[in-house]
Amino acid sequence: MERRSRQYGDRLERFAARIVEGPRNDHTGSADPASDSPGSDTPASNRPVADLGCGPGWHVAGLPQPTLALDASRAMLAEVSATAGGTTPLRVAGDLRALPLRDRCLRGAWASRSYIHLARSEIPLALADLHRVLVPGAAVELHLFAGDAEWDERADDDFPGRRFSRWPESWLRDVLVGAAFGVESIEQRNRVLLVAATRLHTLADTVGPDMRLLVCGLNPSIYAAEVGVGFARGSNRFWRAALGTGLVSRDRDPRHALVTHGIGMTDLVKRPTRQAAELTAAEYTEGLARLERLAQRLEPAAVCFVGLAGWRAAVDRRASPGPQARRIGGRPAYVMPSTSGLNARTSLAELTDHLRAAAAL
User: Fold this and answer.
1) Which of 48, 54, 193, 302 is most buried, by the most CB atoms less than 10 A from its CB?
2) What is the pTM assigned to this prediction?
3) Angle of helix 348-360 relative to helix 238-245, nearest 10 degrees?
């Protein structure tokens, strides 16, 4: 245990220093990145720092107080107090894939070699859930295995039968960007990728394997980034159209849309703005490249881009609504008109028909 706790001691000290500095302004539209979440009376500075997948508590004593220790094993949690050097963390039994925590309840998260036990295809949604429970600007430290494996055994593992995911650094960066984390650094040490990141004030992708349709917006609005749901305003007709087609069965619930119906959601550009005119050509280019790689890796049945103007700016200036000759990551692409209430020329019935046609690809 002592060797394990010393192994990342320098990283733990740096992470603790970032927490003490406080949540950072992430320059993505949040006037106060450390602001309280709706309905909460707990200042961000008083919220706990989590050790996610804490095991017996090797690192808990090095985290700023108050501390939350989370693990799937109750036997491990029972050992935390004895290992934590006199600290008394809140202990929570939970799954990293669906954290049993309320929105924006944490001011930082440390996860050393815990997400390695999830398959790579599960990580994007798990990180979206991590994004949900952190305050904007929160510091994050993740340790994952370097390599290239979806989820398999390691020949050198001391406990045969366990399975691990392993990541090329470039792929991991894409997943972190999609999950709305700003990557500050990735250091490789003994085949482990040590990630320092920040929770950005924007939308996280809800994506996974076997998607029936991947819906891609242009970029989040400031309001959508605040509430954590794409197309969130009541005047936006996306969810009404999706419900009308039967593609989803819950209003404004992207996680349910993915898990239950295979409808994923992402954005071409992750930075939220008040107007699309604030986006740059470089952001379009970078975002399209990430979207291509996302579609190649997860292989959705089709990609639906919501907003003709955005597609024209990013891909094809002469495009019309409907199926496109240009494929995205080898997958069929469909472009539909904007669902914004400002697009009064397109009726809800027409938007519903476009979504139905996109799914039919």
Assistant:
1) 54
2) 0.93
3) 60
